[in-house]
C-alpha cells in the first residue's frame, strides 16, 4: 500500500468529485504505487464503477499490469465485482472505437 497517491485513495473510495478535481489539475491516470497498482486497479478492486469509467475515459490503461501481472479487469474479476468488469469492458471498447474513428 506504500506509494499510494491522493488519486489512488480517491479512486479506491469512490470519491468521484476528488478524482475529477485531481484529473482536471493534471494528475497522472496511470501513476503506480509500490506494488505497481494504478488508480484504476484500486477502483476496480473496490467496485467503483463510475470512477473506473472516468479513469478510462481520461486515459487510464486498462491493460496495466501490477507486480503480480494482474490487470484492473483481473482484480475486479477476482473480487466478484461483475458490474466493474462490465464497465471496464464497455469503457475500453468505447475508447477503442473512438480512437479508431479519429484515425480514419
From TrEMBL:
<keyword id="KW-0040">ANK repeat</keyword>
<dbReference type="InterPro" id="IPR036770">
    <property type="entry name" value="Ankyrin_rpt-contain_sf"/>
</dbReference>
<dbReference type="GO" id="GO:0004842">
    <property type="term" value="F:ubiquitin-protein transferase activity"/>
</dbReference>
<dbReference type="GO" id="GO:0085020">
    <property type="term" value="P:protein K6-linked ubiquitination"/>
</dbReference>
<keyword id="KW-0677">Repeat</keyword>
<feature type="repeat" description="ANK">
    <location>
        <begin position="35"/>
        <end position="67"/>
    </location>
</feature>
<dbReference type="InterPro" id="IPR002110">
    <property type="entry name" value="Ankyrin_rpt"/>
</dbReference>
<dbReference type="Pfam" id="PF12796">
    <property type="entry name" value="Ank_2"/>
</dbReference>
<protein>
    <submittedName>
        <fullName>Uncharacterized protein</fullName>
    </submittedName>
</protein>
<feature type="repeat" description="ANK">
    <location>
        <begin position="2"/>
        <end position="34"/>
    </location>
</feature>
Amino acid at each position: 500500500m506504500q506509494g499510494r497517491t491522493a488519486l489512488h485513495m480517491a479512486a479506491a473510495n469512490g470519491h468521484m468529485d476528488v478524482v475529477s478535481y485531481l484529473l482536471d489539475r493534471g494528475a497522472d491516470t496511470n501513476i503506480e504505487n509500490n506494488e505497481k497498482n494504478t488508480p484504476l486497479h484500486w477502483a476496480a478492486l473496490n467496485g467503483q464503477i463510475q470512477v473506473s469509467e472516468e479513469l478510462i475515459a481520461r486515459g487510464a490503461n486498462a491493460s496495466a499490469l501490477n507486480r503480480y501481472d494482474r490487470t484492473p479487469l483481473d482484480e475486479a474479476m477476482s473480487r466478484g465485482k461483475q458490474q466493474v468488469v462490465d464497465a471496464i469492458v464497455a469503457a475500453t471498447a468505447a475508447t477503442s472505437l473512438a480512437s479508431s474513428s479519429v484515425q480514419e
